[in-house]
Write a structure and sequence with these properties.
Structural class: alpha+beta
Distance between the termini: 40 Å
Radius of gyration: 22 Å
Strand content: 25-35%
Oligomer: single chain
Order of helices and strands: EEHHEEEEEHEEHEEEEEHEE
Number of strands: 16
Largest sheet: 11 strands, mixed
Length: 296
């Protein structure tokens, strides 16, 4: 059993969804966790208020009540790859995240995530990532170390004031040379029938990437990608829309059957670098991870 060392938290909504107790709300919100499990957690103090007082099965639903609980999974996978710190100052830390490691807890992952690993290695319990990176994508993640300046770094991503560079590898027809060519990709990305996948739909564009071919062999090409917007799975869908799905992508263009991770075939997508004006120091920063993706 893996148990989170820090609690997750949620705030009860202002509008009551038709429940009388906190327990009933938790059952409604987390249908995969049965009532017996929640009652067991409550009995030993693993569900509590922000002041530490326990929440019991009889605790009434109250709008905006903050509920703290500890995530548990019966068997947590171990990711056999290491992260490392690329840059650090008093406000931020930029780390390289390996393929298959989630950024934050979720699903089957409680302690095997970048956030928890970095908290343990640095001793900074308040460390928080300020943006997302898919579990199967490798590369740089920017984390906040100082709660007082955290919102400024969140705003960098929200307002698109940070220039991100990715690399991707795809299979190509070597009969055509794509070297040096550039594509300005704009389309509409929306949820698909499966909640974990996205799709390109009709209507006004809400996503934008600039993609350039920088290396090519007879069978593969290395692309440099610059996402202007930040839609979920944007780069994977934009590469697919050009006719070059990213190598080893198990979601696009065709969803592959559920199976354990094949660590010998990682998704060939890498968050390579960040460039931005630091909102605290006003300094220009260009942070990159060493190495990169390699063509066969």
């Amino acid at each position: 059993m893996s148990i989170a060392q820090r609690p997750s938290k949620l705030s009860l909504p202002q509008v009551n969804p038709g429940v009388s107790t906190v327990l009933e709300y938790l059952l409604l919100t987390f249908p995969a966790i049965d009532e017996a499990t929640w009652r067991e957690r409550m009995a030993i103090g693993k569900v509590h208020r922000d002041d530490g007082s326990w929440i019991t099965p009889a605790s009434p639903f109250k709008p905006h009540l903050r509920v703290f609980y500890y995530r548990e999974v019966a068997s947590e996978p171990v990711i056999p790859f290491a992260e490392h710190i690329v840059y650090r100052d008093e406000h931020i830390l930029v780390a390289y995240k390996p393929h298959f490691l989630p950024v934050t807890p979720g699903g089957r992952y409680v302690n095997e995530c970048l956030q928890q690993r970095l908290r343990q290695s640095t001793g900074i319990e308040g460390l928080q990532p300020v943006h997302r990176l898919d579990r199967v994508t490798a590369g740089l993640v920017l984390c906040s170390l100082n709660p007082e300046t955290r919102a400024l770094y969140h705003q960098l991503f929200k307002s698109r004031q940070i220039h991100k560079t990715y690399q991707a590898i795809a299979e190509v027809d070597g009969a055509t040379s794509w070297m040096g060519r550039e594509w300005d990709v704009k389309n509409r990305i929306e949820p698909s029938e499966q909640r974990f996948r996205m799709r390109i739909g009709e209507g006004n564009a809400n996503s934008h990437s600039v993609i350039r071919c920088v290396q090519q062999t007879d069978t593969q090409a290395l692309f440099e990608l610059h996402p202007v917007s930040g839609r979920r799975h944007q780069l994977r869908l934009h590469m697919q829309s050009l006719g070059w799905p990213i190598l080893n992508d198990r979601y696009y263009p065709v969803l592959q059957p559920l199976s354990p991770d094949d660590v010998t075939r990682p998704l060939q997508l890498l968050s390579k670098g960040f460039e931005f004006i630091d909102p605290v120091t006003n300094e220009h920063r260009c942070i990159e991870c060493g190495g990169g993706l390699r063509l066969k």
